[in-house]
């Protein structure tokens, strides 16, 4: 006790001495974060407080002259007149920002740029409050020279959260060493509407898989020490139910009840918040008529009170002003600012949602000082906890060493390898022999580096990216004749070389045809103020962009566009064995391919090492084990077609059955696996239940490989309607040829619970069915168990 009294007295003396020296308490690193926040807050003017909540577009805030990077006049004006506290996408480069490989910043320059911005605010403002710099980081930091990993839909196809946590840690280190503090991601929306343009940014259709991937990203981004210089704050997107817009229209209206909201759409966010996520971004849509950006239930009652979230919330770009222009729930910008801030939306991504509008609202009395201080304190708290007041700068030399290091490039290849999903392999067409005498590489995505990278990708020097053509050339013998013909584009039908492609296939032992889609933006594309692309058709004889996916590119059909199917059909007619490789951002109509092509690989957007990873799988150097994180429909008329639909069971249509072409969890291997000996041990008490699920998996082939074991659950009789089956546990395991492994997966009360008729989380007594297998449809083992007692977990208000 005496020891603690001495320490406390010493701290008081140090604080008093600090104050007497003329330095304010908030600059004392030995003071607690809360003391520093309160001290700084009381010193701030109204305008300075409002400025801290503004997140302006950052790429306009530096100027580059030769190799010298300095703060721009626009930045200085924003600081002096608007007292800004945050920037977004300062280092972003893409056609929307008009930052190219020439006009943008390489890693060392990026570090110099963020240092220049920090130096200006620290030295030229009254209080010297450093900036929080947010960057897009969904599958790599969206900046020049960084490592480009597979997009999120590919990441989840690995079914390997530990790998994705390693990837997130690498992304965080690349962003942080260049001066960023916040990484936007993960996107936790359920992708139950494949026509929607942003499916590629999600982890698929399932709340459990999404939750595990989201937790992995948060832990990888944030680590256990925000002052490490290698970690960033994770911003969860988009809160909430954004991924199921009616008609597939991006940002459009959604329809869901609160039970479905709690049981399906909210769990990934809840788990990520439990894992420590410190920032949440609101969605553009509304929930039951209340926009997410002014939804007090979501932002305060749920996030703060029920989940104990202790970070800050931020709008999506322009969504506060959207309360006026899109949702029409506010008449003026000041009304919109008041609605959002009073509901618990802390920060404004755009710089014009709060700013003057918020000052007007405060002066009109519609926002109190208490509410304003609450939001500002949440932003300041993280600036202190990241150590920015002590060390706002980064080392440009370190950025050069960390960004796109050989280890990160190898990791990108591994994530791509593990993501690749073998959809079909009849007659063991795959793996291919490296001693082929001739191979034809055909298709619009065979040698197009940007088409394999996905949306939210910066410009790339050509030597950064390995295409499928380059990957295959690196695998085969020097004696193998490799012929490449593009054949056609993704969408454009004005130019095609189908006859040349057919000739190449006729003269080859095998034809690898690389088809799909593209999210690759170009400098001719028009953009909305939110950064989403504007869909445009052909203008005269101008070439049409390949882009058919990515933010803003919603689809009415899921068919292969342009002449892709015609190209494939003509190649198949040659009789040459055909392998189709799919590079794309959403499920597409694969009916003809499935019926007529013996081998099909799905690579989604596999990132910079995609060509190497695809070649590794094609030639057997890597045994594929990716699994679909989303169901692939046979027709848009089946939608929605996600696997865990609620009862009653679906019946067939006049034209087709109700089943997807490929089910959630589907994926093949060059190895074969056998499941056996399923049994369940149950233990119960009044507060919990444990179901220990045990079974064996054996590799019955002569080839080593991974298997993704999946455990699904059905509540056979329940007081409210529940899914026909629901993934509860999964594990990716590696088995050598002939090896058998005992697998143990444990279910607890949270895995068995439902929301009853009184909206209380309960485990109800009764019979449950466990289904274990290789996909949601490929169930190998089944057994039932019974819960004897009622277990009440909580009501929604707790």
Please describe the structure with a list of short key phrases separated by commas or semicolons:
798 residues; 8-stranded parallel beta sheet; 6-stranded mixed beta sheet; TIM Barrel; disordered N terminus; Rossmann fold; 23 helices; alpha/beta
Main sheet properties: 8 strands, parallel
CATH C-level class of the largest domain is: Alpha Beta
Radius of gyration: 27 Å
Instruction: Please name the CATH architecture of the largest domain.
Output: Alpha-Beta Barrel
Q: How helix-rich are the residues, as a percent range? A: 25-40%
Please identify which CATH superfamily of the largest domain we are dealing with: Glycoside hydrolase, family 3, N-terminal domain
Give the strand order, joined by hyphens, for the main sheet: 11-8-7-6-5-4-1-12
CATH topology heading of the largest domain? TIM Barrel
Mean pLDDT: 94
Q: Which structural class do the helices and strands define?
A: alpha/beta
Q: Which runs of at least 5 residues are low in confidence (pLDDT < 50)?
A: 1-17
Name the beta content range: 15-25%
* Count of folded domains: 4
Protein name: Glycoside hydrolase family 3 N-terminal domain-containing protein
Signal peptide: 1-19
GO molecular function: hydrolase activity
Pfam families: Fn3-like (PF14310), Glyco_hydro_3 (PF00933), Glyco_hydro_3_C (PF01915)
């Amino acid at each position: 006790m005496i020891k603690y009294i001495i320490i406390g007295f010493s701290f008081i003396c140090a604080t008093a001495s600090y104050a007497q020296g003329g330095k304010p308490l908030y600059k004392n690193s030995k003071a607690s974060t809360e003391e520093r926040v309160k001290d700084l807050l009381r010193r701030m003017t109204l305008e300075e407080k409002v400025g801290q909540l503004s997140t302006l577009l950052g790429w306009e805030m530096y100027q580059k002259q030769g190799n010298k990077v300095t703060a721009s006049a626009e930045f200085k004006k924003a600081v002096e007149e608007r007292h800004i506290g945050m920037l977004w996408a300062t280092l972003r480069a893409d056609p929307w920002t008009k930052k190219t490989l020439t006009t943008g910043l390489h890693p060392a320059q990026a570090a110099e740029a963020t240092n220049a911005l920090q130096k200006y605010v620290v030295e030229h403002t009254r209080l010297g409050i450093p900036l929080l710099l947010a960057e897009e980081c969904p599958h790599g930091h969206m900046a020049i020279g960084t490592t480009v990993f597979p997009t999120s839909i590919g990441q989840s196809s690995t079914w390997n959260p530990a790998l994705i946590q390693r990837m997130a840690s690498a992304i965080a280190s690349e962003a942080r060493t260049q001066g960023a503090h916040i990484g936007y991601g993960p996107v936790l929306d359920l992708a139950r509407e494949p026509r929607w343009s942003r499916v590629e940014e999600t982890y698929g259709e399932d709340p459990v898989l999404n939750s595990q991937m989201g937790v992995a990203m948060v832990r990888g981004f944030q680590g256990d020490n925000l002052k490490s210089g290698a970690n960033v704050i994770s911003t969860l997107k988009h809160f909430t139910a954004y991924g199921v817009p009616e008609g597939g229209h991006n940002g459009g209206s959604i329809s869901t009840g609160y039970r479905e909201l709690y049981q399906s759409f909210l769990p990934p966010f809840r788990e990520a918040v439990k894992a420590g996520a410190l920032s949440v971004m609101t969605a553009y849509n509304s929930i039951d008529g209340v926009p997410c950006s002014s939804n007090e239930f979501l932002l305060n009652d749920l996030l703060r009170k029920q989940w104990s979230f202790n970070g800050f919330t931020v709008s999506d770009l322009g969504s506060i002003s959207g309360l006026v222009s899109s949702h029409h729930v506010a008449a003026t910008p000041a009304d919109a600012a008041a609605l959002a801030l009073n509901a618990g939306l802390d920060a404004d991504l755009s710089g014009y949602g709060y700013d003057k509008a918020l000052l007007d609202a405060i002066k009109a009395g519609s926002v109190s000082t208490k509410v304003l201080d609450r939001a500002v304190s949440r932003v300041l708290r993280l600036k202190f906890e990241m150590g920015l007041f002590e060390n706002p700068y980064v080392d440009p030399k370190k950025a050069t060493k960390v960004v796109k290091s050989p280890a990160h490039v190898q990791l990108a290849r591994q994530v791509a390898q593990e993501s690749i999903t073998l959809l079909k392999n009849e007659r063991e067409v795959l793996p291919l022999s490296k001693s082929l005498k001739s191979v034809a590489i055909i298709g619009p995505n065979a040698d197009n580096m940007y088409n394999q990278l996905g949306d939210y990708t910066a410009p790339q020097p050509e030597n950064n990216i390995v295409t499928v053509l380059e990957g295959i050339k690196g695998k085969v013998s020097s004696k193998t004749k490799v012929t490449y013909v593009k054949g056609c584009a993704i969408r454009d039908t004005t130019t095609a070389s189908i006859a040349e492609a057919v000739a190449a296939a006729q003269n080859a032992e095998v034809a690898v045809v690389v088809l799909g889609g593209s999210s690759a933006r170009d400098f001719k594309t028009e953009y909305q103020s939110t950064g989403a692309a504007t869909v445009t058709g052909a203008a005269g004889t101008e070439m049409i962009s390949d882009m058919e996916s990515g933010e803003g590119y919603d689809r009415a059909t899921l068919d292969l566009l342009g002449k892709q199917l015609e190209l494939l059909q003509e190649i198949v007619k040659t009789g040459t064995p055909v392998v189709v490789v799919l590079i794309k951002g959403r499920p597409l109509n694969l009916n003809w391919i499935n019926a007529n092509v013996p081998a099909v690989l799905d690579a989604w957007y596999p990132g910079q090492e995609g060509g190497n990873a695809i070649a590794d799988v094609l030639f057997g150097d890597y045994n594929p084990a990716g699994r679909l994180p989303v169901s692939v429909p046979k027709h848009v008329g089946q939608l929605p077609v996600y696997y865990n639909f609620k009862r009653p069971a679906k019946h067939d249509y006049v034209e087709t059955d109700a089943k997807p072409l490929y089910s959630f969890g589907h994926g093949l291997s060059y190895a074969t696996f056998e499941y056996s000996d399923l049994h369940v041990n149950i233990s119960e008490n009044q507060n919990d239940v444990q179901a220990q699920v045990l079974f064996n998996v054996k590799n019955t082939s002569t080839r080593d490989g991974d298997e993704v074991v999946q455990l699904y659950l059905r509540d056979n009789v329940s007081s409210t309607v529940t899914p026909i089956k629901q993934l509860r546990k999964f594990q990716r395991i590696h088995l050598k040829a002939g090896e058998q492994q005992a697998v143990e997966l444990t279910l607890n009360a949270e895995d068995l619970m439902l929301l009853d008729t009184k909206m209380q989380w309960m485990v109800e007594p009764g019979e449950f069915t466990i289904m274990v297998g290789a996909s949601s449809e490929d169930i190998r083992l089944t057994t039932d168990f019974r819960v004897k007692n009622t277990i009440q977990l909580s009501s929604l208000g707790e």
